[in-house]
């Protein structure tokens, strides 16, 4: 894996500048990467991290500056160039073929052949070599397994093995823990430590400040497309507030702006919700002005419960009451009619129409509001959406902007705008801050506080214990499809939540 060189750095970026029409995306950015280190790339959404990675991997051509490998200047014109130079990348959205085997994915495009003129695939060699690379990442996996049958964590290891099979000595991991459980994160960190010992250099992109202390050696911070500072993790003494100041250019005095609101009347009551193998006998209430947190391990039934309430589980049974009145919710349309909104965990595929504009996404839930004589009124649409963009502080050049071009935080705000526009009073937020940076998280928390001040009731499903503890008025804890316990804000602790989430009792 290692290459002899007199240079201190296996990869060095000097004065990297990248322009797009009307936008200076990167402005004289620096980065130095040593063999066998984990170098964390930190910054808010829009800081330039993704653009920099695309320059390194050849997806974008730089406009100014120089890339050095082992001290020698190189030109990276395409992803094939970067791969040939030993640079691998694992994106959040994997580049795997689900219908092919693990071995076929690992060696895609570089399959070992026997009797090349005949075009015969050497399957035995491919399987043998695949096992070697899978062992390097600690994956006990049959190379003949179809990738589509593997879980997310295993697919991620296949992606890393695929990069190593392409002789990657520089590996870029883009938000690698975003969809992993705590146990899977621990496994991933073990893999990264193993790669360090093999002298692989890792660029690690993450929004999760708590991970950095455990996995990182050094941190480079970008802000608004510019280089801010590089610090050793030890030298930072792990001061999260200092890193936040570097990221956002200001202090965030209150990371959890929780409004103190008097809890009002009952908005929602669910009784004996059940869906075979998903949810068993779940009952609870939600009140106006309340943020009801829902905790639990992956597979505990949290999202499944939300989908029943939103009418997205046709096999479910149980009773639902809205403002004291029993209602029948058999579809999402029924839920919307009863003032219930749902912001799903996967906002990109389930919560938004990525190729459509902010306007089209927002009015999708309230078309009746913007009709005039039965026809969509452009002026009414514009007034409604422009007002929401202003109120929710959505950063966009125009309301006709496609939502796929917005940052994660702004996309989440569009999801909220959609339900505010529909006059929902009950809003279910499933992992509302997943994959967004610390500054955007604070803005989402602020918007949640503003909603409950107006009498909304919010159900917040989250795997982030600090935000559950800080933002919730009550916390429900689920275990194996059932409610295991309920904690009031004043009594809730991480230890109690984890005990209940693991099947314990208090």
TrEMBL record:
Subcellular location: Cell membrane
Predominant localisation class: membrane
Entry superkingdom: Bacteria
Topology relative to the membrane: Peripheral membrane protein
SUPFAM superfamilies: P-loop containing nucleoside triphosphate hydrolases (SSF52540)
CC annotations in GO: plasma membrane
Keyword Transcription attached: no
Entry keyword set: ATP-binding, Cell membrane, Membrane, Nucleotide-binding, Repeat, Sugar transport, Translocase, Transport
Designated name of the protein: Monosaccharide ABC transporter ATP-binding protein, CUT2 family
Species assigned in the record: Hydrogenoanaerobacterium saccharovorans
């Amino acid at each position: 894996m290692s290459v002899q060189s007199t240079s201190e750095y296996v990869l060095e970026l000097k004065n990297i500048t990248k322009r797009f029409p009307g936008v200076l995306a990167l402005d004289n950015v620096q980065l130095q990467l040593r063999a066998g280190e984990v170098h964390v790339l930190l910054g808010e959404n829009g800081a330039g991290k993704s653009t920099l990675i695309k320059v390194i991997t050849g997806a974008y051509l730089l406009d100014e500056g120089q890339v050095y490998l082992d001290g020698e200047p190189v030109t990276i014109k395409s992803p094939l160039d970067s791969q040939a130079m030993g640079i691998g990348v694992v994106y959040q959205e994997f580049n795997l073929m689900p219908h092919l085997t693990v071995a076929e994915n690992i060696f895609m495009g570089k399959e070992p052949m026997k009797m090349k003129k005949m075009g015969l695939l050497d399957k035995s060699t491919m399987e043998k070599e695949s096992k070697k690379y899978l062992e390097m990442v600690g994956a006990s996996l049959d190379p003949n397994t179809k990738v589509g049958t593997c879980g997310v964590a295993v697919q991620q290891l296949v992606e890393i093995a695929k990069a190593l099979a392409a002789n990657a000595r520089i590996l870029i991991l883009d938000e690698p823990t975003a969809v992993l459980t705590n146990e899977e994160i621990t496994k991933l960190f073990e893999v990264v430590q193993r790669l360090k010992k093999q002298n692989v250099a890792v660029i690690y992109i993450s929004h999760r400040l708590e991970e950095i202390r455990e996995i990182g050696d050094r941190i480079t911070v970008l802000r608004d497309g510019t280089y801010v500072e590089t610090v050793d993790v030890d030298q930072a003494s792990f001061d999260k507030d200092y890193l936040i100041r570097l990221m956002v250019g200001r202090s965030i005095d209150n990371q959890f702006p929780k409004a103190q609101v008097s809890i009002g009347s009952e908005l929602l009551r669910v009784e004996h919700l059940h869906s075979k193998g998903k949810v068993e006998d779940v009952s609870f209430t939600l009140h106006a002005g309340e943020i009801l947190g829902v905790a639990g391990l992956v597979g505990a039934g949290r999202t499944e419960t939300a989908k029943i309430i939103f009418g997205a589980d046709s096999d479910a049974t149980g009773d639902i009451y809205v403002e004291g009145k029993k209602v029948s919710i058999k579809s999402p349309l029924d839920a919307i009619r009863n003032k219930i909104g749902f912001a799903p965990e996967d906002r990109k595929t389930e919560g938004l129409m990525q190729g459509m504009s902010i306007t089209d996404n927002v009015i999708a839930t309230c078309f009746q509001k913007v009709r005039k004589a039965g026809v969509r009124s452009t002026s009414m649409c514009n007034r409604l959406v422009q007002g929401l963009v202003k109120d929710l502080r959505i950063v966009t050049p125009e309301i006709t902007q496609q939502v796929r071009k917005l940052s994660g935080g702004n996309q989440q705000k569009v999801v909220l705008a959609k339900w505010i526009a529909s006059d929902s009073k009950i809003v279910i937020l499933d992992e509302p801050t997943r994959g967004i940076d610390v500054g955007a998280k604070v803005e989402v928390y602020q918007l949640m506080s503003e909603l409950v001040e107006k009498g909304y009731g919010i159900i917040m499903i989250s795997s982030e214990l600090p935000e559950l503890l800080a933002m919730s008025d009550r916390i429900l804890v689920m275990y194996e499809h059932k409610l295991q316990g309920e904690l009031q804000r004043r009594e809730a602790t991480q230890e109690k939540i984890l005990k209940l989430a693991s099947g314990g009792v208090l």
